[in-house]
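Supplementary Methods, section 5.1.

A reviewer requested that the exact input to the structure prediction be made available. We therefore reproduce it here, unchanged from the version used in the analyses.
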Amino acid sequence: MMLANFFGKSKPVNFILIIILFILYDVLFIYVYDFDIINNGLLTRSIGIFALILILFSVFNFIISKNKLTGDNTYAFFLFVISFGLIPNLIIDINSVFFYIILLLFFRKIYSLRKPKSIFIKLFDSALWLGVAFLLEPMSILYLVLIYGAIFLFLEYSIRTIVIPVLGFVTPVFLYFTYCFYTDQMMQFERLFVLNFDVNSNFYNTSFYTAVFSLFGIVTLLSVLLKSAKIFSVSNRFKRSWILLLLHLLLSIVFVVSLKTHNGTALIAVSIPTAIIIANWVQSIENKWFAEMVLLTLLIFSFVIHFIV
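The structure derived from this sequence is encoded token-by-token as follows.
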């Protein structure tokens, strides 16, 4: 029961070992996928990507701990990093890493709405971050649904709670419009509103992603069904956070399949709520040997899949 016990507690050494695990994934990707980082002049870029990923990890952990989305453990962080082991192109795509940091900053504000403090500032800030994300990836506008879902779950609908997110979202978009208008690049601005709502899953129609979606899909479905039964049987505030997590997962799936271009890095969007959902189930498993088997299976799979598929 080494993994279940070790990551069942939140200690600084846990985070260090999980970071080492991510470094091992990097080495694996370079070896298996022939990413010639040094000869292709990507070394400096890769160092920058690694620094950004550390920031991404920090924001993810902050969201979990600050909003008590799991118990006092590091299961979610461990599972989140395991999902990175299934995204080889991540170590050479700095734009995607930067985008998901922005998206996590948006999620940070959304989940903090569970606390009735400075709610109007949080609503504005969340929509502001989403507006920035929209400028980087227009399909992220889908997450506007998450804002109003959070309002429905944690707050009350009023003129202010409806209008403030709109103002926050429009602010960076308007500033970008001003820039494009001043520099005569209005075509760039207009392209933001050419949205694609057609499901595009061709990139993922491979044996690699079929295996990934099958395993993680089954574990996620089990987590949702088994944990939801317990959560909805008890009247507590976490029930609302759980519903928000499920909505988050659904929107993330739609977001990924609706993107125009794919290189696998979009799976980060799904892995954010998925890691938290699975972690909630794992921490509730009374049989620690079974919890160990779940974690060990996912860990081994994240390495072996690169050699057998």
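The chain has 13 helices and no strands. These observations are discussed further in the main text.
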